[in-house]
Write a structure and sequence with these properties.
The chain is elongated. The relative contact order is 0.17. The protein is mainly alpha-helical. Helix 2 crosses helix 4 and helix 5 packs parallel to helix 6.
């Protein structure tokens, strides 16, 4: 399941890295702690709209641009089978399996785009 905070974080990190800027540079410009900005980029914290606007300003981007990019990524995820489906809860008696998550350096959008399967369109007569 794709988390909104993860998609936002990936989009922010991609913009920052695309400008060859460090977390320290952007956190200072946005007046947010370096650790908190790092957590936002990793999808561990949800930033307020005011903080997102400050980070976008520090990156020289509009909040609407960032949210548009996030919206496009979510649209790609919605078109993929099984990406945005609720996770089924396992009974308490069953031990959960250990899972490993690998973080890619590329944004989630690029990953979704690369694995996207075309949908079959059926037109009514």
């Amino acid at each position: 399941m794709v988390l909104l905070r993860r998609v936002i974080g990936d989009a922010l990190r991609a913009r920052r890295q695309g400008q060859h800027r460090t977390l320290r540079e952007v956190s200072t410009a946005a007046n947010v702690s370096l650790g908190y900005l790092s957590e936002i980029e990793r999808g561990q914290k949800e930033a307020s709209s005011e903080l997102l606007a400050a980070i976008c300003e520090a990156l020289g981007a509009r909040l609407s641009e960032l949210l548009g990019e996030v919206s496009d990524t979510l649209l790609l995820a919605e078109e993929m089978d099984g990406v945005l489906v609720p996770i089924e809860e396992k009974p308490a008696a069953v031990k959960p399996e250990v899972s490993v998550s690998v973080r890619h350096d590329s944004p989630l959008k690029a990953t979704l785009h690369a694995t996207r399967k075309p949908r079959e369109v059926v037109y009514a007569a």
